[in-house]
Specification:
By secondary structure, this protein is of the alpha+beta class. It has nine helices and six strands. A hairpin with a 5-residue loop joins β2 and β3. The chain is elongated, with a radius of gyration of 36 Å.
Amino acid sequence: MGTAGKRGLITAAVTVVCGITVLAAPGTAFASPTPTPTPTSSTSPAPASSTAPVVPPLPPNKDLEAVREKLESLYHDAAVATDAYNAAEEKAQKQSAQLVQLAKKIVDGQRRLDALKDRAGAAARQQYRSGGLPPEAHLMLSDNPGQFLDGAGRVLQGQRATKAMLDEMSRTQQDLKQYAADAAAHWRELEAHRKDKEAARKKVQQQIAEAEKLESRLEKQQKERLAELERQAAQKAQTAWLDTGVLKDIQGKASEQGAKAVSYATAQMGKPYEWGAEGPLTFDCSGLTSQAWAHAGRPIPRTSQEQWRQLRHVDVKDMRPGDLVIYFDDASHVGMYIGDGTIVHAPRPGRTVTVAGAGSMPILGVVRPDA
């Protein structure tokens, strides 16, 4: 992944609340400055020792909590941008496929038009060889009127065939014109989706780079305490969700396809998160769920937002293994319910596919791919 510029790095540090000065200057203590000794009339403040190392104390939990919330915000924004990137990528692929089909139609239409022109040219040459005389003249000049009349019937059939050929030629020309217009429109849409995709890619990289820079400023012990705060926050949310009694109402069994999707998703545990990835070695959240259901024989939308929009909604109390749990108000994250109040999901950059409490994040709703 690309890294953010110096301005972005400084911004990431400055925006951390509660004055976490250790993040801006590693090695600086979080504690209040040592009080200045009270001077006397005969002495000056003693100079600080230049030999004793200063060991910065760990920041208080409230300051690390601010870091946790900032990281959560950055990774959430990265997830939103990832969904936008995946959506633009999916649309670009569809546009490309449609352009290929239109190109085939244009080639086939041009061949058909060329063949019709050849037939029209042959008919024109035949008329020229007959002198261009009207049928009445041929009848008067014919030595065998009966034979002429038989031929006249064939001529009439030929005229009808010629008219049908000219009509087909006109339709083919109109089709080619429409194909060309459609191709131009699809090309413009493809270019727009490519621009959207590039803008989203930059946004993802920027947010992740800021988060990684913020984390890199923490010492080992601070990172351990931060991880513990994250676990505590997730456990608190999960406990509050379970305390509602929702789990006692969740008794649904997986469908045959749902069981296959769960089997695929859980088999990916331990594989790294990578934004925009659909496997087989790395996944993002919706890449994991979409591939799991594709493996089960049920293709579903690529992004968590489209999964929320297009798939059938079910009540949380009715969910069963294989259903997808959509998180946050903007549907920016998704996990797969696997039973016993848990999900399997690809959390965020720096993490791996893992099991988590289904209520450890704010639930927007549940959708069922094989409704």
